[in-house]
Specification:
Its EC number is 4.2.1.51. This protein has helices at about 10-20, 35-40, 60-70, 115-120, 120-125, 140-150, 160-165, 215-225, 260-270; strands at about 5, 25-30, 45-55, 60, 75-80, 85-90, 110, 130-135, 155, 170, 180-190, 200-205, 230-235, 245-250, 275-285. It is an alpha/beta fold. Strands 1, 2, 3, 4, 5, 11, 12, 13, 14 and 15 form a 10-stranded mixed sheet that branches.
């Protein structure tokens, strides 16, 4: 049975991964995303699951950087999963002094670094005076709260973490938008057996040649005249030279087609460097 590294336990990564991969894999939890990547890069696990993008937060830049700069692990699949943020902690034994804000007594909020952007409205309204402390995962925040048993310290995390660590749920679904979704990538050196999907994606990195005016326009034109849809294009520094960028591009299409390989050949012909991060099935959340 293949081993899958996840950020966990009791995290959104674990919840989403178990939903899509089921019981045919063995899950191994790590506290840090670097440990998740390195577990598969070193052969300790066969695959890793990486949260890569969120509806509200956008790309998780640290995770993209790891995928691009630190490891060589092809993308094997992607899926999206709904994310419900919950306020988790121990109720104050004292009556609320402010009827409009029952959480005015809270002094510290623990969670993952991406959480404030997803819960901005709630935190501004109810947790304005609380200090936000970044921890390695949403579940780690709940675990710490469970050890402190201090009503002034709360966490923002999953319902499963609330249950597993025995910490009460103070407020459900505090994210800014109810359709908050996170996109996860499955990466690994070998492709696993997965359910078939009619939707395929290809992710590439394109580094433009220096001193080539109009190079980006030509890159985009190579896709445009072939009517190839780009679902995402993002510029990021190469970390080699100031002002030198690569483009992270998600393409709706398969390398088995005729048009996509020819588009990449055209891009390389003008002097661009192209690195293919993966050609993989894409799965949507169906609620089941």
């Amino acid at each position: 049975m293949k081993r899958v590294a996840i950020l966990g336990p009791s995290t959104f990564s674990e919840e989403a991964t178990r939903h899509f991969l089921g019981d045919s894999f063995t899950y191994v939890s790590y506290k840090l995303i670097s440990e998740v990547f390195n577990a598969t890069a070193s052969g300790e696990t066969d695959l890793s699951v990486i949260p890569i993008e969120n509806t509200l937060e956008g790309s998780v830049h640290l995770h993209v950087d790891w995928l691009v700069h630190e490891v060589d692990l092809p993308i094997r699949a992607e899926w999206v999963f709904p994310i419900d943020m919950n306020l988790i902690g121990y109720p104050s034994p004292e009556p609320a002094t402010d009827a409009a804000n029952p959480y005015r007594h809270v002094r510290k909020v623990l969670s993952h670094q991406v959480v404030p952007a997803q819960c901005n409205q709630f935190m501004k309204r109810y947790l304005r005076d609380a200090e936000f402390e970044q921890v390695s995962s949403t579940a780690e925040g709940v675990r710490i709260v469970s050890t402190l048993n201090d009503p002034t310290v709360v966490a923002i995390g999953t319902a499963i973490a609330s249950t597993n660590y025995g910490v009460p749920m103070l407020e459900r679904e505090i994210q800014d938008h109810k359709d908050n979704m996170t996109r996860f990538l499955l990466v690994g050196k070998e492709a696993p057996e997965l359910a078939s999907s009619t939707d395929m994606k290809t992710t590439i990195l394109v580094t433009l040649p220096e001193d080539y005016p109009g190079a980006l326009h030509q890159v985009l034109s190579a896709f445009a005249w072939r009517r190839i849809n780009l679902s995402k294009i993002e510029s990021k520094p190469t970390k080699k030279k100031l002002g030198n960028y690569y483009f992270y591009i998600d393409i709706v299409g398969n390398m088995d087609s005729v048009l996509l390989p020819s588009a990449i050949q055209e891009i390389e012909a003008i002097g661009c460097q192209v690195r293919i991060l993966g050609c993989y099935p894409s799965y949507s959340y169906n609620g089941s």
